[in-house]
Amino acid sequence: MEAVNQLAEAYEKFKDDPSFKKELAGLLKDYAGRPTALTYCDRLSEKYGPKIYLKREDLAHTGAHKINNALGQALLAKYMGKKRLIAETGAGQHGVATATAGAKLGLETEVYMGTIDMERQKLNVFRMRLMGAKVNPVESGSKTLKDAINEAMRDWVASFQDTHYLLGSVLGPHPYPMMVRDFQSVIGREARKQILEREGKLPAAIVACVGGGSNAMGIFNEFLGDKDVRLIGVEAGGKGIKSGEHAARFADEKLGKKGILHGNYTYVLQDKFGQIYNTHSVSAGLDYSAVGPEHSMLRDMKRTEYSYATDDEALEAVKTLSEKEGILPALESAHAVAHALKIADQFDKDDILVINLSGRGDKDVNTIIRELGYEE
Amino acid sequence: MDIADKFRGLKEKGEIALIAYISCGDPSADETVKIAGELIRAGVDILELGLPFSDPIADGPTIQAASQRAIEAGMDTDKYFETAKRITGVPKVCMTYYNLLYQYGLERFCKRCGEAGISGLIVADLPFEESGDLMSTCEKSGVDLIFIISPVNSEERIKKIAGQSKGFLYLQSLLGVTGAREEMQFKLNEILAKAKQYSKVPVATGFGISKPGQIKELMGQGVDGVIIGSAIIKKARDDRRGLGGYVRSLKAATAR
Predict the structure, then answer these.
(1) Of B48, B144, B217, B224, which residue is the catalytic one?
(2) Does the reported pTM lie above 0.90?
(3) What is the ipTM of this complex?
(4) For B168, how many CA atoms within 13 A lie in the half-sphere containing its CB?
(5) pLDDT of A204-244, one tens digit each?
(6) What are the structural domains, with CATH classification, of chain B?
(7) Which of B55, B98, B128, B156 is the best mutation test for A, with the most CBs of A within 10 A?
(8) Which of A270, B20, B46, B196 is most exposed by smallest CB count within 10 Å?
């Protein structure tokens, strides 16, 4: 409690501080390469109906939206006088972003990562190490994101006096869900401005994948007041809802119930006694048992809607987007692409569909080759 | 059996409480009952029986592994109460994580505690600020809700929490997670003084303790009890025949 109270106070103090804001804006522009492009997909649009745009977070430095939050929190840590950053990572994108921010801002960095994820996201493990970060393998529990968060929290309760826990999604105790959303909301602010400039109107729908849900909150946040814009989150359907091997907290009404995990009250996959269920997804970044609490709230208010894409559908979308548009999406982001294409026929030709392409797929090439059975 | 009575009795004898933690269902419900019996015969004063949770964020590797073994062996909340009921002779305290209480229902959980003869409850991941509902439910059911304070808590927060703890106050001896530390120096004087000033109940300390010498040292500093978990779980697993002797050596250190 002391740790999160101290952080909440510091965030309140610095978030509107002119020099903090100026420094962060400078980092986002000149270092992370913002604003990211909004790309019109003419071939996909022609084939599927509505005008399809991609918000290109894959073009941000390090290859995913995670850098927005990492730079924000790392800078905050610096303002707080912390010397060390710790982070959890699933797909490795948040770990890479944290290692990057740590290197740039001169903070020692340690990243916790489940050993299953280390295996399937090897490339990112090397990238973190190259940037001077220590990667700590996590062998406990399901050896994925959930367990990496457990381990980072265990570190932080002992180390918070000189260490900032740079949590990567809209999860955990207050102020994390709010703070991470705020740092990611640059995505939606840019997208809104870009689409109005290009099309003179707002999109009919925005589609984003949801693991913890930070890229989705980042793009949704700016459109929450635009009631006519459908906001659609896509969870990992894994091997299908009935199989029980998935990470679809909302779609599975039997296993997905409200509960408490990692300091927040939200939908969690669990058994009837409240033991947390181990998830499955082909994408490490969506492989998590709980969803950010603001998603749960927005869903209960019926402002946002959620669906899922299976492993196979996501892999198919990787192929489609690569072949039709020359863009290799991360497996996580491919879930959003898959679902957007699936529901495209609900829209008119003039309607605009914006997909948040949260990251690039280079890190997933080994998995994709194996799963799609490409030969040399 | 009442926790307060236990502490009172020990104080009259010039002893502090030896509180042992084990994970219920590790490696099985039957073994838990046997191990608990051995601990009690060897002199344990209060038994903390952990209801294992899949994601024990306050626990170190030893209790994590014990929890995982117990869950894999089929332990769940219903079986926990059945098992707890079979253990008698000393006051029992349930230690667990909030989601398990929440899913079971707070009232139902506390009622089952009463039926199983569990007199205290510790919820490792429930911040004091969020504990209003549970506090009133515990009060109604006659279960002591035990709070934890840590060495970094401000005096203001200690005052708030310590005054509300029932049964005993759990003083975390160090920052971090549970688990035995070999070369542990415990310097609790300042925080212990504050805890004792504001607490209406005895103060017991835990995290990192494994040796009689450490107990002596803590006793000298004025604690009313020591809580030992990971070291006991390790001993029960690696050297079961030596468990009784080990616990007797710990208990011997609690007498003046």
Answers:
(1) B48
(2) yes
(3) 0.94
(4) 30
(5) 999 999 999 999 999 999 999 999 999 999 999 999 999 99
(6) 3-252 (3.20.20.70)
(7) B55
(8) B196
